[in-house]
Amino acid sequence: MNANIAAVGNANVSPYCGQIRDLIYGVAGIFHTDNRLGFLEDRCSRRMKLLNITSLVQYYELLTRSAERTTELHLLLNEITVGETCFFRNQPQLGALQRLVLPSMVAAKEKVPFKHLRIWSAGCSTGEEPYTLAMILLEEAKRFLRGFTFEIIATDLNDRSLQKAQEGVYGDYALRNVSQEMLRRYYEPAEVKGEFRVRDEVRKHVKFNRLNLLDDARMVFVKSIDVIFCCNVLIYFDGTSKKRVIQHFYNNLLPHSYLFLGHAESLFGVHDDFRLVHFPNAMAYIKTPIQR
Fold first, then answer.
1. Same domain flag for 132 and 103
2. Residue 133 CA to chain centroid, in angstroms?
3. Residue 86 located in a structural domain
4. C or N: which end of the chain has fewer Cβ atoms within 10 Å?
5. Domain that holds residue 27
């Protein structure tokens, strides 16, 4: 028996969860600690029920040796990467973006002939964050962003989340922080009573794509980014995976551009080339050119 199987410490969890954990970590960088193995087994059980598989051993064989292994791993990742979010979720961060970061971007691009902003929502879940960012930029387009074009790149690992994001239809829970004025301006009633659809004026600025943040071959092509929002994503990665992702972020950002993380996340001990900046009730990291 593999040492990883024997090492799983929770007696109530199948030892094969350790093997599946290692598989997921190798592919996506998501690491489940021992106390999270129960969650992982539950998500595996959901897939097993649909496949009429009764043994976790059989399921592990399916994930590693069958012709459908890549597709099934893709579907399992959908089960374990569901995030909870809403529109205008982190008000201090959004306020810092609107009042401080965007004006600094405008000043930096004052002499650039083609005035364009690219913001990346990395781990966009069901789309509330990138649509929020697009609405903020549309608001500022009437003021100091006059003459600018912009785009929001929105990526996630979960296909189901991305499908919902592209549909752009949301209920009360997702809309709980949206003012009546913003609701009137940027949403329209959907077919189901009580649900609203994001207007095309907003949607046209957001491009959704599935992206594994540990896919080095694809990450190198996400270039010339002004601001990255990657909130509550790195908490699922271990130190090695975090370093890989953050190095890509550093390479993808333009000089003097910004990285926003979740309030419980930090680059301490992960990457030394960003400079921490404090805003009112929020913080971010700025890319400063390396001095040689």
1. yes
2. 13
3. no
4. C
5. 3-80
Question: In total, how many domains does the chain have?
Answer: 2
DSSP state for residue 21 in the 8-state scheme: H
DSSP per-residue letters across 35-54: GGHHHHHHHHHHHHHHHT--
pLDDT score, position 3: 35
Using only C-alpha atoms, the chain has a radius of gyration, in whole angstroms, of 21
CA dihedral of residues 45, 25, 238, 267 (deg, nearest 10): -110
Least confident piece of the model among 55-64, 73-82, 117-126: 73-82
| Integer CA distances (angstroms), 17 to 24, 65, 198, 203, 233, in order | 10, 16, 40, 40, 22
Is there a single domain that holds both residue 45 and residue 141?
Answer: no
Out of 57, 80, 103, a domain closes at: 80
Q: pTM of the entire structure?
A: 0.85
DSSP 291: P
Cα 289 to Cα 100, 227, 249, 271, 276, distances in angstroms: 20, 16, 14, 14, 14
Same domain, 48 and 147: no
| pLDDT of amino acid 124 | 96
pLDDT at 134: 98
Backbone angles phi, psi at 242, to 5 degrees: -60, -45
Clarify whether residues 134 and 276 are in a common domain. Answer: yes
Report how far residue 25's alpha carbon sits from residue 133's, in angstroms, rounded to the nearest whole number: 30
Helices (H), the chain: 3-7, 16-28, 37-51, 56-65, 69-80, 91-96, 102-108, 128-140, 159-167, 180-186, 200-203, 216-219, 239-252
Evaluate if residue 4 carries a pLDDT over 80. no
- Report the pLDDT value the prediction gives residue 288, as an integer from 0 to 100: 82
Q: What is the pLDDT of residues 119-137, one digit of tens each?
A: 999 999 999 999 999 999 9
Same domain, 126 and 12: no
Residues 67 and 107 in one domain: no
